[in-house]
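Notebook entry, structure prediction.
Reason for the run: the old model in the group folder had no record of what sequence produced it. Starting over properly, with the input documented here first.
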Amino acid sequence: MTGSTIKDIPEEWEVRGTQTPFRGRKTSVRTDDVVMPDGSVSARDYQVHPGSVAVLALDGEGRVLVIRQYRHPVREKLWEIPAGLLDVPGENPLHAAQRELYEEAHVKAEDWRVLTDVYTTPGGCDEAVRIFLARNLSEVGGERFEVEDEEADMELARVPVADLVRGVLAGELHNNCLVVGVLSLVAAEQGDGLDTLRPAQAPWPARPFEA
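New structure, fully documented this time:
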């Protein structure tokens, strides 16, 4: 295959039955009985997720706005880029990303583009994430958004891209959206350039929305 022909394609195998043994506040666990190519039926358990957005905010000095936050499942404080859930079905992902950047970093951006779209763990979860590139940053006036729980302990920093790349390759930075976002940024810069990235309202089949 060449670069112009290798791409993921939609496909849906027959489901003979489905159950939802667990429902949480934001996600649930589903069990589908899926018909395999040989005609057999196998159960597949996976987390049902509303989807997320993340923002790689790049300032005029080539630094990325990052946040350090405690993540209980992995028992670590991780450096991440601003991110959040698509809380409302059909929500415009750009609007959600702008909200997250404001709430977590009290920053706004004038230039928005789609950096990349990913499935975080497609073997066990249907979460889809759209990672945006935000440029031409400025501070937002007024009172800061009131945070709670883990977010009350967040730390903010602006880190040069090269330092983040070194941290990723050294195995010192692990957050999925940060790793994918930073390496995608470098690839875009070394390729056709950031101005050729998809527009912020580009279609997203994994999570359709109205512009």
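Summary: The chain has a mean pLDDT of 93.
The old model has been moved to the deprecated folder.
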